[in-house]
Amino acid sequence: MTDVVVIGGGPAGLMAAIAAREAGASVVLLEKGDKLGRKLAISGGGRCNVTNAKPIPELMQHVLGNPKFLYSSFHRFSNQDIIQFFERLGVRLKEEDRGRMFPVSDDARTVVRAVIRYMEQLGVKARLNTPVRRILAQDGRVTGVETGNREIVPAAACVLATGGASVPQTGSTGDGYRFAEALGHTVVPPYPTAVPLTSDHPRIRDRSLQGLSL
């Protein structure tokens, strides 16, 4: 039996697999697509804004809604920890306007390759083209997952890292909501936030406004 099975090979899934393996757990990562880190590779306009270097209190001032829920996360793994993590992997970073941190290469694939390489060095078993059908549980405890071809992957714990439903072409199709509801969790209906806007207007179609932030 595997200690931890991670569902989803995006940024969250990759980091969850790394963290679990560093803690000594045996880890299997299941990704339904044919590539890991697909959404990470297109983040930041293809440059990957890995974090922000500003002090935490200053960062919190720019979080809409309720920023307090982030404090516990940053206490465990801060923005400075993120910077040190990537530099330890050999990814040189640079600071741009308003504290935004990018790889010196200006290529998100630099980040993707470094994370996947480190995960493989740790011994995480990643399985591509392996969609998950459902999470198995008994007496309130996870016992494993069932894949799309009805294979059972026994596991003592499961990390659900399937992402939302904002970029379907990267594999984010909202599978996690269905898995969570099947286990008895309450899911608040999602609504779009940071998603592209589409239009047939000529100025949009010719991409003359591409790169502008509003």
Descriptive report:
The protein is built from eight helices and nine strands. The strands form two sheets. Strands 6-2-1-9-8-7 form a six-stranded mixed β-sheet. A three-stranded antiparallel β-sheet has the order 3-5-4. The mean pLDDT is 92. The protein has a domain of 146 residues: FAD/NAD(P)-binding domain. The longest helix is centred in the middle third of the chain and has 15 residues. 32% of the residues lie in helices and 21% in strands. Helix 1 packs parallel to helix 6 and helix 2 packs antiparallel against helix 6. By secondary structure, it is an alpha/beta fold. InterPro entries: BaiN-like, FAD/NAD-bd_sf, RsdA/BaiN/AoA(So)_Rossmann. This is RsdA/BaiN/AoA(So)-like Rossmann fold-like domain-containing protein. It holds the Pfam family HI0933_like.
> Which bin fits the share of residues in helices?
25-40%
Net shape: globular
Uncertain stretches: none
Q: Determine the number of helices (DSSP H or I, runs of at least 4 residues).
A: 8
Distance between the termini: 50 Å
CATH class type of the domain at 2-48 and 107-205? Alpha Beta
Largest sheet entry: 6 strands, mixed
The H-and-E topology, N to C, reads as EHEHEHHHEEHEEEEHH
Region (Disordered): 193-214
Protein name: RsdA/BaiN/AoA(So)-like Rossmann fold-like domain-containing protein
Domain RsdA/BaiN/AoA(So)-like Rossmann fold-like: 3-190
InterPro entries: BaiN-like, FAD/NAD-bd_sf, RsdA/BaiN/AoA(So)_Rossmann
